[in-house]
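Regression test attached.
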Amino acid sequence: MKRSLFSGIIAVAILVLMTGCGKLPQTQIDAAKAAVEAAKTAQADIYAPAEFTQLQDSLNAALAEVEVQNSKFFKSFGDVTAKLEALVPTATTVTETAGVKKEEVRVKTEALIAEVNALVEENKGLITKAPKGKEGAAALEEIKNEMTVIETAMAEAATIFANGEFMAAHDKVMAVKENATNINTELKEAIAKVTRR
Amino acid sequence: MKKLKPLFIVLLVFIIIAGMGTGAVVLLSPEPPADDVEYARLALSEARSANAEAYAPRTFRQASLQYDSAMVNWKLQNRRFILARDYTEVVRFARLSSGNSAKALSQTRQSETSLKSQLKKEIAELNSIVGGLANLYTRYPLPQDMRNRIARGKMLLSEAVVLFNKGAYLQANRKLRDADPLLRNSWERANDNLRNYFSSYKLWVKWWNATIAESKQKRIAVILVDKFAGKCYLYQNGLKKAEYDAELGMHWIGDKRQRGDKATPEGLYHVTRKLEGKSTIYYKALLINYPNEEDKVKFSQEVARGSLPANARIGGLIEIHGHGGKGTDWTDGCVALTDSDMDRLYKAVKVGTPVTIVGSALPLDEVIRRRNGGS
């Protein structure tokens, strides 16, 4: 009886020695990978790029650490498990940050679109009041051409915005705003000159 | 107790053997490639942070794939018995990845710097083209499709500038690639057209100077029209007496070739009739002898050559008349002045007064210099 007990103890000891004492934290690995993927789906790579790169790198570092432990005879996954677990709330924060920034850009772009649309409408009104003196009518024709392009660009920006690409829409509307503002200034100056006479 | 002793000895021996065995395994097992992989990961991360994915996509992708290969190989080796593991491939992939990450980073830094300076230069060039187009061609009858292309090009240029200013050089570059042909081709086509138009400049100057000389010699009034300047001049005894803004045919560039082409003719003419009251619908008018003999010959030659259709008809009824001041070139080929200017001109001339119409009284270089702000 005692002999078999000793044999059992020896067998367990051998098994423990051979396999090491750590268990691969697969659940934590999967959770961390899923959290990083969720951050990417939330466009963290666009709206919080630095934080997302850092997050991705932390995941890579943790996965490398898992393999370091796997390479050892005596495995210890304690530290890396903690790192992997910590990655999940970090990824959630990055996802939330991206969401907040995206919403900020959305609101900003929406306001910008409204502002430029108002400017376009104002320009349409100014065109009717603009003088058609020397070269005035020719210049107005050119302005009308540019206003057609501006309206097309605004329609494109609205489509991009509707597709959820708020940053791209913002950049486009900023360019439109510059052109629309130039036209507005040009028209106002021309009208002011005539009024002064 | 006595029975336990041999067992204890066996256990002790076993533990010693197991310990020695474990020690041997630990000592003989290959060193995990942690440092190489760590170095590769850091290099890849640095390249990613520098946006190498966009600036050096091929090299970065290679580095990324090689890093993944290193990790996959490492995992595979770790599944084998500890003494049978071989990390050579892992190390090889990790080192290749590090090398490519470093290369991608260097390519990124170089590309970004050179792209930035290239974009800056191109934006300046295209802005100068936009300025040139505005200075030279606002009144010039460019084809509508070209005007549309210019307007689209200007919009794309603005988008490129917005992206450039926020450091998104690759996106700015894409916008510039679209803007460039629209603006540059329009500019080149317009300039070719203009240079071609000014090829008659020597003849125009000859007419211009001859008309002023005639005014001086015969002590008479003459009318000169500079189409490019959009001006009508009254000379008396060889001296400029008045200058009026003139509006021309809708397609005023080029000589008049046939009826309905809305071009203003170029040549040496004279007033054949003075019209006012009910004889004209344009307040007051000075009818000129278009087509003159030279115009008729040119027209016949064009029809004979086939450059004009056989049923084409030569134009006529070209006048200097009132109702101008619309700010655009709107006539069917006549020269329109404001009614008040027409009053003054009408009073100063008579039937027979020479009327010389030229494309430009100034050479093209001078026109460009003045339009660009030279005095």
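Expected vs. actual: identical. Chain B has two domains: 12-110, 199-371.
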